[in-house]
Amino acid sequence: QVQLVESGGGLVQPGGSLRLSCAASGSIFTINGVGWYRQAPGKQRELVAGISRGGNTNYADSVKGRFTILRDNPKNTVYLQMNSLKPEDTAVYYCNRYPIPTPTIWGQGTQVTVSS
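RESULT FIELD:
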């Protein structure tokens, strides 16, 4: 089964930008949909953005207009471009299939911290 590994997190000031990468171990075209999820301390994991094989996208209301999910099939990578970051975007970000299959396995994620 194709594995997905996220990277690109870090510390950024409010209003700044980051780009997260989700690299597939094989052909990402074999995966119907890929999503970015996040979990903040003390909160449940939530969907941030998802993209289908055909390129249809879905965003959480809290990130609409600020985040963009992009699928690069030749590079077997899905990106999450995050602009105008806010402290409330601080969380561990994960990529996984979209919608989430049951059961599923989560990777280690990548930490995004928005702070001055």
